[in-house]
Specification:
Layout: E1 24-29, H1 37-50, E2 56-61, H2 80-91, E3 94-100, H3 108-115, E4 126-133, H4 141-152, E5 156-157, E6 162-165, E7 169-170, E8 173-174, H5 177-202
Parallel strand pairs: 1-2, 1-3, 3-4, 4-5, 4-6
Antiparallel strand pairs: 7-8
Length: 205
């Protein structure tokens, strides 16, 4: 997905895309069925990033890894397509990671995918963490589960995490105004951090 760069980020010394490599952002959600509120949340966050800066977007979920994911104890046991997804996650300039809430935590298959990533590949990488759940009682999953998980990888998790309950969706899409505002704020923050990280390679002399 390629969109024009609006101010203010376009005026912070960042060259046009014809003079720099693309900014790559990958969204990954831990849903095991479609349609999915978690997948919709990641889509909305990706759109919020692309509303702020020109990016190349890739979005994946558990289903994209295929049937062999649960039986793969190493990357070598994955299909070629599944290993490509891991490569895309590791090479991204920024990540959006979200999981549905199961028993107060992220899903097992979501964690399995994260376990297959090389820890050093996420070091200092800007990340938005998000989650969905039935009600507000699960809201702390992003702070008590997902943020510490990214801390292990030394990822640069942005301050604004995003939790969305079922009541904040309409027609399967994030709709509550406070949720939409938080999505927008998180997308803007991620865009700014990605630009900051790659500016040494993309700014005019």
């Amino acid at each position: 997905m390629q969109l024009d760069v609006p101010a203010p980020l376009a005026t912070q010394g960042f060259n046009s895309m014809k003079d720099s490599r693309p900014i790559r952002v990958v969204g990954f959600s831990g849903n095991t069925h479609r349609p999915s509120k978690t997948q919709a949340l990641v889509s909305a966050l990706l759109a919020a990033v692309s509303d702020t800066v020109k990016v190349e977007i890739q979005q994946y979920d558990i289903l994209d890894f295929g049937d062999g994911l649960a039986n793969a104890f190493s990357r070598e046991q994955l299909s070629g397509a599944a290993e490509t997804i891991l490569d895309d996650i590791e090479r991204a300039d920024g990540l959006i990671l979200a999981s549905p809430t199961y028993k107060g935590s992220y899903s097992g298959l979501f964690k399995h995918v994260i376990d297959l990533l090389a820890p050093e590949a996420l070091a200092n990488k800007p990340v938005i963490v998000g989650a969905t759940g039935g009600g507000l009682r699960h809201a702390l999953i992003v702070e008590h589960q997902l943020r510490p998980l990214m801390g292990f990888f030394s990822a640069n998790t942005i301050a604004t995490s995003v939790y969305a309950s079922d009541a904040e969706f309409e027609g399967g899409l994030p709709s509550a105004p406070p949720l939409r505002e938080r999505i927008s704020a998180a997308g803007t923050s991620l865009a700014g951090l990605m630009i900051k990280n790659i500016q040494p390679y993309s700014c005019a002399d």
